[in-house]
Amino acid sequence: MLANTLELVSEARRRGVAVGAFNTYSIELTQAILQAAEHLNQPVILQLGVASVKTGGEPLVRATVVAAQRAHVPVAVHLDHCADLGMIEQCFSWGCSSALADGSHLSFAENVALTRQAVALASSYHATIEAELGYLAGTEDGVTVEAVKASLTQPEQARAFVAATGASMLAVAIGNVHGFTPNPPPLDFERLSQIASQVDIPLILHGASGLGKENVQRAISLGVAKINVNTEVRTAFLSAIATWGLRVGPTPDVRRSGQDWLDLMREAIAAAQMVVTEHMQTVAMMP
């Protein structure tokens, strides 16, 4: 069933757990995420990045919303990392229930201005705005930010930012990075604790791929209620396709069992579903 993002995240926060938010690029990847959520009977957030929306347009967004509506667990649909108010409004009109109005690359004053406009826009759609203060190193959907340019969230600034913007959720930078890292980056948990003491809204942790169960669950214990995962799931899906290609060879024979499109998609969906399941068990604090 299609759910309100803020309600899902707020309920997770109340229970001392988090909601997993996973980026999707196609109906097949959406299927993998929803199958994992339904198997565990857990709520989930489907996220669409700007590049995905530009590529798939309204059909992709609406298909994602319909998939959420027909799911047997609560599912929210979220537009991730978008600085374009026009795209945010368009996605709201297509059924998304939340968006990250990403002004993290702007000055503090410009970030406040963008976020306030997004919050005002969202109110007319009964939607939710996630904001980001501080920005992450790493690569997300082909956009790379060098580590030297990354900026950590300042706790006192976070309080002023939330008060000035009215944002309902806040993504923080505490040493986390976009993309997969073989060795988990050191997270500044003291900074996270200070931020949580300054604001009374759910905190969001981006870049959870490769962080490890212990780090993620410690962040949840300090106030994080939405965990974003993209790279690990996408890589599992693509790796399954690559493995299938190596096994089948350059010229598939669609008359043979295991060599047609649906065979390929079944393998890719299963691989992605396994990774999503592991992350959902972590954020739901399952043993």
- What is the CATH class? Alpha Beta
- Annotation, overall tally of beta strands: 11
CATH superfamily: Aldolase class I
Mean pLDDT: 92
CATH topology annotation: TIM Barrel
What Rg is obtained from the alpha carbons, in whole angstroms? 19 Å
Q: Please describe the biggest sheet, giving its number of strands, its sense, and whether it closes into a barrel.
A: 8 strands, parallel, barrel
Estimated structural class:
alpha/beta
Number of helical regions:
10
Note the run of SSEs as H and E. Answer: HEHEHEHEHEEEHEEHEHEHH
Strand content: 15-25%
Helix content range:
40-55%
CATH architecture descriptor text: Alpha-Beta Barrel
Could you walk me through the main structural features you see in this protein, from its secondary elements to its overall organization?
With 287 residues, the protein is an alpha/beta fold. The chain has one domain (5-234, 273-283): Aldolase class I (TIM Barrel, Alpha-Beta Barrel), CATH 3.20.20.70. Helix content is 49%, strand content 18%. The chain contains ten helices and eleven strands. It has helices spanning 5-15, 27-40, 50-70, 85-93, 108-123, 155-165, 189-198, 213-221, 231-248, 261-283; strands at 19-23, 44-49, 75-82, 98-101, 128-133, 137-140, 143-145, 169-172, 177-178, 203-205, 224-229. The strands form two sheets. It has an eight-stranded parallel barrel with strand order 1-2-3-4-5-8-10-11, surrounded by nine helices. β10, α8 and β11 (224-229) form a beta-alpha-beta unit. α2 packs across α10, α6 (155-165) packs parallel to α7 and α9 packs antiparallel against α10. The chain is globular. Mean pLDDT is 92; it is low at 138-146.
